[in-house]
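FAQ

Q: What does a record look like?
A: Structure on top, sequence underneath. For example:
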């Protein structure tokens, strides 16, 4: 029996299920994260509009229920007036009461929904105002941080230019000499404000000429005794040396980097101008390698030095050494994560005599400032050593990473000894979603030029200042060299500057970057060598970076556990320092300043401080004993740092 003007049961069920209930189910299954993204004002209005539409649907349902309820009650009243048995009358009365109760309950539900919507509208306006405020505060905070960074740099420059302070030594190079200037200190990099290189900042112009013309020019001027064809034997295809085939099967992947969110602003707002090594950072900012392993990664293109051993010409050898120094930056363009700060006394060995022909050892010799000593021996006839102190500062929108210290390279057969310094790297756009890394070059053995993303060029000259090769390329891709056959000054430009014009032969490829492994974007953009550096190996010292627990947990993707372990290790290191400080306490003759220095002092196990006769600086050099201890597996002298 149907009431007048009412829908049938099937129609009502269809309306309620499709028009109302399905809408609730669809919206309830939405992604909460999308509803809370900062830029979505329009989405808030859209949500309110949807809620209003749902209220209209509920009101329609309410009207239909009221109509059906009234029709049902009229029908029941009509039935009640008919002569029916008493037993049926009781049942009819019960149905009538249930219908009334159903109508009351439905009305209560609709009223509750209306109250909910009104409350949601009130609070949504508050949320909208709060969201707008947070957006404004975020923009204001970013502007404030940038302004503070500028003020910080201005104060540093003002302090350096104050009366009585010595001027910074000028940066230069000796063209063609095998040694850099003695005593040159790169610490000034920390206080330098860097700018992108301009297109007209080159001091020379290169013109490619034909080989016959070049040889004729060489013969007429007597400028070179080295034939380009002989140089081909060493320089041409230097980058094409295949990677060493290892007898040991090494891993080619690590667990994918997990996607953990982190409130970046809560950490960075207190970091302006501070030394990053003194700021406690969660592992979310790290990559699962220590700074010692990152330093060892510079040896990926060791074959350039193996090739340089066979050069009979010093200028040709310098081309390969220059390419090697540039190649160490080739993996940094995507590597914006921070390596782990090594614990004091931490070591890392790379024992690859069989496949790479070398042995490498690093030791963390100082914690404040963080400093690492490194020694490499190659069975092909060269050795490399350095002590690098990493200074890094947060500048507002970018981080400057300034390696301080000299790198030495010596070829045993010729006795040629090269010294250079690492360049400043900058991680840009750390607040935005797309970070990238740039390099500022201060390369001592070649005339420097930088384009902060791509170009690296230079001129290799002999001890008389005569140019032999022009280097060109990019620090993240490849390097080439072109033989100079003639040079002449150009006409002065409008600003009075004069450049040198070099006529060269066609360029020869010195070095080319290896392609990244498959899935590298999910493995911290590690190279093939980097993927193997933290692989577990038997027989290493108990202080080796591979055994560091927080780093291992991070590599496995257990970041929460890694953060807990990192805090434990850092507290253990602080406790060791406090004990050293107590040893120079009130009962000793040390002043407080001397006690602080004594507490920070550390006697390395495998390196010792010596005066570098070439740079005039004190530096840690390898004193021997590590590989002998490894052969005996005698590590009793190693500290318990993990």
């Amino acid at each position: 029996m149907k009431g007048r003007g009412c829908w049938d049961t099937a129609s009502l069920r269809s309306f309620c299920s499709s028009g109302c209930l399905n809408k609730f189910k669809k919206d309830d299954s939405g992604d909460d994260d999308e509803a809370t993204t900062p830029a979505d004002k329009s989405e808030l209005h859209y949500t309110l509009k949807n809620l209003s539409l749902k209220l209209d649907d509920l009101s329609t349902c309410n009207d239909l229920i009221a109509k059906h309820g009234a029709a049902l009650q009229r029908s029941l009243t009509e039935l009640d007036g008919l002569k029916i048995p008493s037993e049926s009358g009781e049942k009819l009365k019960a149905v009538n009461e249930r219908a009334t109760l159903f109508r009351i309950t439905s009305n209560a539900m609709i009223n509750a929904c209306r109250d909910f919507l009104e409350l949601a509208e009130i609070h949504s306006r508050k949320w909208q105002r709060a969201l707008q405020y947070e957006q404004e505060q975020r923009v204001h905070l970013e502007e404030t941080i940038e302004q503070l960074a500028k003020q910080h740099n201005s104060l540093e420059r003002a302090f350096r230019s104050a009366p009585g302070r010595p001027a910074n030594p000028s940066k230069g190079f000796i063209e063609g000499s095998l040694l850099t200037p003695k005593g040159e200190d790169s610490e000034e990099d920390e206080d330098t404000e860097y700018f992108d290189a301009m297109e007209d900042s080159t001091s020379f112009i290169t013109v490619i000429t034909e080989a016959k013309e070049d040889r004729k020019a060489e013969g007429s001027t007597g400028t070179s005794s080295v034939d380009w064809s002989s140089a081909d034997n060493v320089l041409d295809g230097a980058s094409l040396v295949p990677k060493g085939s290892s007898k040991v099967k090494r891993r080619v992947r690590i667990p994918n980097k997990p996607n953990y969110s982190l409130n970046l602003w809560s950490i960075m707002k207190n970091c302006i101008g501070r030394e990053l090594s003194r700021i406690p950072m969660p592992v979310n900012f790290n990559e699962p390698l220590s700074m010692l392993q990152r330093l060892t990664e510079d040896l990926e293109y060791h074959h350039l030095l193996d090739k340089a051993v066979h050069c009979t010409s010093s200028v040709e050898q310098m081309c390969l050494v220059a390419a090697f120094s540039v190649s160490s930056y080739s993996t940094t363009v995507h590597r914006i994560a921070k390596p782990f700060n090594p614990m004091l006394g931490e070591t890392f060995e790379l024992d690859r005599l069989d496949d790479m022909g070398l042995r490498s050892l690093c030791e963390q010799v100082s914690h404040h400032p963080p400093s690492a000593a490194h020694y490499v021996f190659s069975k092909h006839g060269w050795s490399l050593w350095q002590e690098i102190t990493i200074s890094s500062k947060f500048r507002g929108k970018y981080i400057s990473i300034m390696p301080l210290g000299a790198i030495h390279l010596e070829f045993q057969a010729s006795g040629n000894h090269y010294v250079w310094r690492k360049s400043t790297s900058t991680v840009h756009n750390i607040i935005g979603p797309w970070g990238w890394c740039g390099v500022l070059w201060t390369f001592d053995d070649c005339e420097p030029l930088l384009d902060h993303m791509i170009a690296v060029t230079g001129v290799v000259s002999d001890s008389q200042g005569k140019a032999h090769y022009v280097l060109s390329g990019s620090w993240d891709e490849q390097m080439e060299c072109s033989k100079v056959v003639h040079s002449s000054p150009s006409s002065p430009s409008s600003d009075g500057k004069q450049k040198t014009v070099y006529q060269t032969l066609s360029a020869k490829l010195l070095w080319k970057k290896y392609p990244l492994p498959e899935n590298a974007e999910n493995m911290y953009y590690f190279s093939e060598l980097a993927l193997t550096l933290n692989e577990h190996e038997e027989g290493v010292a108990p202080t080796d970076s591979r055994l560091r627990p927080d780093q291992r947990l991070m590599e496995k993707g257990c970041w929460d556990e890694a953060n807990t372990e990192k805090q434990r290790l850092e507290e253990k290191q602080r406790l060791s320092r406090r004990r050293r400080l107590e040893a120079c306490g009130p009962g000793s003759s040390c002043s407080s300043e001397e006690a602080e220095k004594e507490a920070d002092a550390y006697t390395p196990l495998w390196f010792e401080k010596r005066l570098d006769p070439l740079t005039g600086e004190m530096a840690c050099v390898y004193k021997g004993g590590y590989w002998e201890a490894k052969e005996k597996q005698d590590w009793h002298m190693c500290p318990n740092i993990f």
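Q: Is there anything notable about this one?
A: Residues 244 and 356 are 6 Å apart (CA to CA).
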